[in-house]
Write a structure and sequence with these properties.
The chain is α+β, with helices and mostly antiparallel strands and about 280 residues long. Helices cover about 55% and strands about 15% of the residues.
């Protein structure tokens, strides 16, 4: 009986030694892998932060800074993960091969999503617009709120958020209303045929020339645009700074109407004359 007990004790000791051996060997490796991962992640964040600060000091566009920072962080994290796995003893060559095959399969399944990523790269580097610009694309208009790897978010004038996939955005025409420093306002006013045309032109020209935010170069233009059915069309073409576009347009429209009233210049409206003929009963 004592021999059986001793035999069991020997087995327990044997398995304990095995467990201790594996725990010592792989426990240290796992601990080392965890240290590599957390320290590597901390270093990756510091590197990305330093790079972003350096690009900001160099006055690089904020959109490009965000894109480059995200791309660098992902690349560094992948390197850290591979190093941590390698420390455990996993063969990284085969792991990378499996990862590549899985990446290929995922890429084929998500080709439309990857197309959006490719479009984001084109937007970032060719810069048809940037964050803060007012654009028209994919049938909608708004200020560019953000650009990420998959989509672009616009904020409309009535404060709605519109998310457009980058692939669809880059595939169509893009109109950037704030891409330049100045912009022309195209305005049209219609006066009655009975009014003095020269006086009306002088009134409009004086409103444009006296407005503080209308630029002198290029010089604003006032001309006859068309002889319409209801009156004479005057066109006005003032140039303003991009940020002043809407305010100036509203102010000029109001000022022209008030000046027309002072000079007895009428603004016609569509009307119909009905002539009734009395026939013999």
């Amino acid at each position: 009986m004592f021999s059986k007990i001793e035999h069991v004790e020997d087995k327990v000791v044997h398995y304990s030694d095995i467990v201790l051996e594996y725990a010592t060997e792989y426990g240290l490796k796992i601990l080392g892998a965890l240290l590599i991962f957390f320290i590597g992640k901390w270093v990756a964040r510091k590197v990305v932060t330093l790079m972003g600060a350096g690009m900001a000091r160099a006055h690089v566009d904020s959109t490009l800074i965000s894109f480059a920072s995200n791309a660098l962080y992902v690349a560094l994290i992948v390197i850290v993960i591979v190093a941590a796995i390698s420390n455990i003893g996993v063969e990284t060559t085969s792991f990378i091969a499996v990862f590549g095959a899985a990446g290929l399969a995922i890429g084929l399944a998500l080709k439309d999503t990857l197309a959006n990523v490719g479009a984001a790269v084109l937007i970032i580097f060719f810069r048809p617009f940037k964050v803060g610009d007012f654009i028209e694309a994919s049938g909608v208009m708004g200020n560019v709120k953000s650009i990420n790897l998959f989509s672009t978010t616009l904020t409309t004038a009535d404060n709605r958020s519109i998310i457009i996939p980058n692939g669809a955005l880059i595939a169509g025409n893009i109109i950037n209303y704030t891409g330049n420093h100045t912009r022309r306002i195209d305005m049209a006013f219609v006066i009655d045929y009975k009014d003095d045309l020269k006086v009306a032109k002088e009134v409009v020209k004086n409103v444009l020339q006296t407005h503080a935010k209308v630029l002198n170069d290029p010089e604003p233009i006032v001309a006859v645009g068309a002889l319409e059915r209801d009156g004479v069309q005057l066109i006005a073409r003032p140039w303003v700074a991009v940020d002043d576009y809407w305010n100036v347009m509203f102010e000029i429209t109001e000022s022209v109407k008030l000046e027309f009233d002072k000079h007895k210049i009428t603004v016609p409206f569509p009307q119909m004359d009905l002539h009734v003929k009395r026939g013999e009963l």
